[in-house]
Amino acid sequence: MTAPVPLPTPTVASSTRPRVTLKVWLADLTYTQQTISAETMPQAIAGLATYAVTKMDLAHPVRIFKYPEALAAALENDGPPDVIGFSHYIWNSQLSLAFAELIKQRFPQTTVVLGGPHYPLRLPEQTVFWYERLAGKADFYIDGEGEPAFADLLRTLNDFDRAEVRGHIAGVHCLGDDGTLYAPPPRLRIHDLSVVPSPYVAGLMDEFFDGKLVPTVQTNRGCPFKCTFCQEGTSYFQRVAKKHAEQIRDELHYIGRRMKPLVEAGTARNELLITDSNFGMYPDDHDTCRVIAECQQLYGWPRVVNVTTGKNQRDRVLYAVAQVPGAISLSGAVQSLDPDVLRRIARSNIDAGKLMDIALAASDAGAGTYSEVILVLPGDSKTKHLGTLRQLVDAGFDRLNMFQLTLLPGSEMCTDSYRREHGLVTKWRVIPRCYGAYSVLGGELRAAEVDEVCVTVPDMPYEDYRECRVMNLFLASLYNGGVFAVLLALLRAHGVSPMRWLELARSIDHGPTLTAVLKEFEAETDEQLWDDRTALLTHATEHIDQYVEGHLGNNLLYTYRTRIISEALNDTTDLAARACLAVLREGGVGLGGGSLIEALVHEGAEYHRLMLSEIFRVDPPEVLRQTAGFNLALFLAAARRREDVRDLRRFRRAVEGVREFVLTPAQQSTLNTYLRQFGATPWGAGRLLTKVRLPDIVRQVRMSPGPGSAPAPAGTEPPQRDQR
Fold it and tell me: Is 677:36 a contact under the CB 8 Å cutoff?
């Protein structure tokens, strides 16, 4: 690239903010037709606007858009802006580019700017990216943090033509008329995140408190770790910038006041998303948790805080989470526990052993725990992947979230050199929920998002990848959330790994309904993967209706987990019990005729089947009943305290009772709120299970009183009440 001639200095006194007369719009678009795919409030892109106001006097307020329909209406009714900026993420790249291309065709005078992490790291790959994806659609792309670079660009565009701007602004890339890519390095990172005023407190988010979107905040930005699969794993993001405690407090209380009436009316999900990469790892996070606790008391919000907790500093993380008991699940995102795999993905500076300790420490504190595992990492194999799952299950994590390796353009792993070094073989798939068709400026705009997933590395052929996916489904369906908690507690009491139980459940005969569901899962696993990105995009946009209607493009683990615990529940319950008895026998546990162990297995399996019965039915289903030979509440409580529960005589009821399984009004309200947003289809219900903890929606259990007595109300704690 040739060095550009420096721009003349705008004639503005340095002591005043320059006057900018441009009409500016910003869009953080999400798909809306099957469901809202990215349900986060557009806080990040609105921060560009609040920061710009601190640097210039804007003649026109910046307009913020989240929904494609709203942007289409504004283009039709209000005329084009001078500048429009689009966020560019893996989940809205094609949607943003489709709007950008249409705007450039209809309003060539409008300057289109993109920014976000979905952009390659290296100049050769950036050049290809421009030619293949951005040319004719975007005038500029902001590389790195957006706030300062976008403000610089607005000030400059106010005084100069687009062609004069090329190459003059740090972090602002563009393609020249001669095909040269102007790619100056990014601006230095922001040191103090509080220089970006809160868009909530500024009122820019008010219209998005619509009951559909989840409030989203960021208290710090950056990550000290160097994971090669992550866009924050580069040296640019190593330093962590923080927001002042006072600004965090003001922001959270503002959100709480807006959420209170929505939560009370049951029209909004009672959640908060914090986008920090390592929440709880820093002392300031303790103050944030105390503010969240204040908001819970004052506004009844948030019931759930979705956040990734820190990868090191276990004690700090535990202390932070303890400020808001039950709201935050502790994450132990190990990705793999194989030393060679960890070395290849640059996670050697993360103490995997301490991540494992989190499960036990959190269990003692009464907090939920989850871990994350990525399939087909560099150096991975079937043995290594299943070995990682075994260690995490044995450590006692409540839930394992299992992902396929996605190559993100802004990550080191996506570079050509890294792919070659580690032998990554990839395919393309449509991203679930990320597709739609919209009427814009008199025509139809169709778009779908695709991502690139790794399916083969030298030690993991495709057949092994496929089998690992099936085992991931078994773990999600039979283990996550304590679906069969009684069986798990019994297995652990006898020193049997739940992973061995799952492996046996995979290998023995299945009932006809479960067999059919598994066969369909395997077929769809193959059908979703394409070799050619362009061919898949063409197919997806031509068949948008089939994707929106749910016939294509679903998240298979979520969808088939839903089908396994709903339509195949009877087969699944039978399989869980048979596999449990078989693996106990395999371990030398005596199961003679009429043994208490066998009786507990059958009663426990049926207990969980009844809790899960009609799990996604909102209207009050009939009360279900079961003869109670054991006090399962006492058994599970003792197991949680890590007592020796092998002597089942202490849990045998002297007199058999009757359990009743009911859905409470509070549970019906929770189901209504989420199913209104996601729908009651298998794919919608599958997504619901990623947002709601099973105990919040499975039937509550109460002991039936004797003849002539009124039943104990659901949610109370009658003597010997069985519960999860």
Answer: yes
Residue 108: is the preceding peptide bond cis (ω within 30°)? no
- Look at residue 47 and give its three-state secondary structure: helix
- The dihedral region occupied by 374, where left means phi > 0, alpha psi between -120 and 50, and beta the remainder, is beta
Identity of the residue numbered 256: G
Tokens matching residue 624:
């279900």
DSSP H/E element including 499: helix 498-507
Structure tokens given for 722: 């069985």
**What would the pLDDT profile of 277-286 be if each residue is shown by its tens digit?**
999 999 999 9
**Helix axis angle, 498-507 relative to 569-586, nearest 10°?**
120
Rounded to whole angstroms, the Cα distance separating 458 from 378 reads 9
Q: Quick check: 272 pLDDT over 90?
A: yes
Environment class of 147 (CB within 10 Å of its CB; exposed 0-12, middle 13-18, buried 19+): buried
Q: Read off the pTM.
A: 0.89
pLDDT per residue as tens digits for the range 638-681: 998 889 999 999 999 999 999 999 988 888 888 888 887 777 77
106 and 442 Cβ atoms separated by less than 8 Å: no
Three-class SS string for 524-584?
HHHHCCECCHHHHHHHHHHCHHHHHCCCCCCCHHHHHHHHHCCCCHHHHHHHHHHHHHHHH
Beta bridge partners of 65: 27
**Residue that the structure tokens 């197919």 belong to:** 539
- Give the H/E segment covering residue 611: helix 596-612
